[in-house]
Design a protein that fits this description.
The protein is 12% helix and 51% strand. The chain contains 3 helices and 12 strands. A hairpin with a 2-residue loop joins strand 4 (52-58) and strand 5 (61-68).
Length: 179
């Protein structure tokens, strides 16, 4: 820690801007709940029972109707966490894209989709069966959803600033962690 502080005080660092996502939940009755900015992802996830039925819509065009454990929209920073464990791609953290990754889908389209940073993603909850509950998780914090709710997600205008002390590149980090 002392070494890190000395480097910061000596100016031996650089700052990276990291993209964030934000969103809102539009309830069936028209109420809107804001989802705060998230550095990693905004995800829809179920409880331990059943599956969630939902439509994934990008820029007002239906991509697919899913039956799955959930779906996430992640930032490049979030690509190496939950997204990676669900089979999503590793993305350079300084890129400005969104990744849409289904979680345990019961469908042929089970791959991630890379989207422009200008995309708006809507997830419409079409059915929660039996005792299934669904939640929006923004960087892990849950908000319960109901059938008929729509979650809208887009790039935030805010960024997270990350202090980088080393000159290790993103590629160096991948190589070290994969081998």
């Amino acid at each position: 820690m002392k070494n890190a502080l000395d480097n910061i005080l000596d100016g031996n660092y650089h700052v990276e801007d990291r993209m964030m996502v934000e969103g809102s939940i539009i309830r069936q009755n028209g109420d809107v709940i804001s989802i705060p900015e998230s550095l990693n992802e905004i995800a829809i996830s179920k409880n331990i029972n059943g599956v969630v039925r939902f439509d994934a819509i990008v820029n007002d065009k239906l991509i697919n109707s899913y039956i799955a454990d959930g779906i996430m929209v992640c930032t490049p920073t979030g690509s190496t966490a939950y997204n990676l464990s669900c089979g999503g791609p590793i993305v350079d953290p300084t890129a400005e894209i969104l990744t849409l990754t289904p979680v345990a889908p019961h469908t042929v389209l089970n791959k991630s989709i890379i989207l422009s940073k200008r995309s708006t993603v809507k997830i419409e909850i079409t059915e929660l069966r039996d005792n299934t509950s669904a939640y929006v998780l923004h960087d892990g914090i849950p908000i319960e959803l109901a059938s008929g709710d729509t979650v809208e997600i887009k790039k935030s205008d805010k960024v997270t600033k990350i202090i980088k002390l080393e000159d290790r590149s993103f590629i160096d980090t991948i190589r070290e962690n994969i081998s």
